[in-house]
Design brief:
Blueprint (H helix, E strand, L loop, with lengths): L1 H51 L10 H20 L12 H13 L4 H11 L5 H7 L11 H10 L3 E8 L5 E7 L1 H11 L3 H11 L6 H12 L6 E2 L2 H4 E4 L2 E4 L2 E3 L2 E6 L5 H15 L2 E5 L2 H18 L3 E7 L10 E6 L2
Parallel strand pairs: 7-8, 8-9
Antiparallel strand pairs: 1-2, 1-10, 3-6, 4-5, 6-7, 9-10
Length: about 325
């Protein structure tokens, strides 16, 4: 009788232990989930400070520090907006002109090495590997300093960075692209708007392909592996949330974009928004490897502006055979 009672108590103890382990596991999962959400919130708060108040941004700011800076700056802006200008007073420092002037003044304080790295990122050398291999930095910037310079350009508000993950793989790549201040700096450094400067760089490299030529080759390659291909504008127009866009072609019901990089960022953003809204994934064909890097930058900027991650497939025209063979990626937007 004693051993039976003892056995029953052990069973109850085991059941209690199992129950406590389940509670502990659930608690740990909730802690991990909250920790992940806090990291995302801190990242987004740092991004807001870095973009809108770069002079007050420091690496590793806590959420509390970011909120304090944002509150102080917003309160300062509110107070300024309440002050009425005197009759006839001209606010030459206000508006876009004043912002450009401030950016140009800040740009004068950027070191020569930082300018060289920034210039190359603007031209499409958008990750560390491509920057040191093809960016032409030999004899200009020491290789072991490039990462630190990239981090400094991000922390000082000239560049933004997002991770791009190749799907079905664990690898991710950090892709750098210009911030709003970086876009203004581009006009000063390269003498052209960012998207136009990239097109001109492709021409300098003799890698530019005009749209008609590129589209013709894409159709020629795909017609051997797909049954239905059309470039009829009536078949390729989509409309999502009041925004319409005409894709370059439709292949077995899938909309495909042929990108020469000649579009403005507003055009690209409209394209991404409508195509993602229509089919959930973007299919892009470009003329060559450098154009591919530039397109990755633009997709990252779209993801940053739109506030959500973007799934896309991309291929250079010389490697194009079937849509299903196109490499899959995701821009990860926190």
């Amino acid at each position: 009788m004693f051993s039976r009672k003892r056995g029953k108590e052990l069973e109850q103890l085991r059941a209690t232990v199992v129950q406590l382990e389940a509670y502990l596991k659930k608690y740990q999962e909730e802690v991990d989930r909250l920790k992940e959400r806090l990291e995302v919130l801190e990242w987004r708060l740092r991004g807001l400070v870095k973009v809108f108040y770069p002079q007050r941004y420091t690496t590793g700011m806590s959420a509390e520090e970011c909120i304090r800076v944002l509150c102080e700056e917003l309160e300062s802006s509110r107070i300024k907006s309440l002050k009425k200008p005197l009759f006839g007073e001209e606010r030459v420092s206000g508006g876009e002109s004043g912002e450009r002037t401030r950016v140009e003044v800040r740009l004068e304080r950027v070191s020569r090495e930082e300018l060289e790295v920034l210039k190359r990122v603007l031209l499409g050398y958008c990750n560390y590997t491509i920057l040191v291999r093809r960016g032409g930095l030999e004899g200009v910037v020491e290789r072991d300093r490039v990462r630190g310079i990239l981090e400094k350009l991000v922390s000082n508000g000239w560049l933004n960075v997002l991770k791009v993950k190749r799907l079905r793989s664990r690898s991710t790549t950090e892709v750098y692209f210009p911030s709003p201040h970086g876009l203004i700096a581009c006009e000063k450094i390269l003498g052209r708007a960012w998207t136009y400067a990239q097109v001109e760089h492709l021409k300098e490299l003799k890698e530019y392909r005009n749209h008609e030529e590129l589209l013709s080759e894409v159709v020629e390659r795909l017609k051997h592996t797909h049954k239905q291909i059309t470039t009829d504008s009536r078949e390729c127009i989509v409309r999502v949330e009041g925004v319409s866009h005409r894709a370059d072609l439709k292949v077995d019901g899938v909309l495909v974009e042929v990108e020469t990089l000649s579009n403005t960022m507003d055009d690209t953003e409209r394209m991404v928004k409508t195509i993602i809204g229509y089919q959930g994934e973007l299919y892009v064909v470009v003329g060559g490897e450098m154009a591919r890097r530039m397109m990755e930058q633009r997709l990252c900027m779209c993801s940053w502006r739109l506030g959500y991650s973007i799934r896309y497939r991309i291929s250079t025209v010389d490697r194009l055979s079937h849509l299903e063979e196109m490499e899959k990626y995701m821009v990860i937007r926190p």
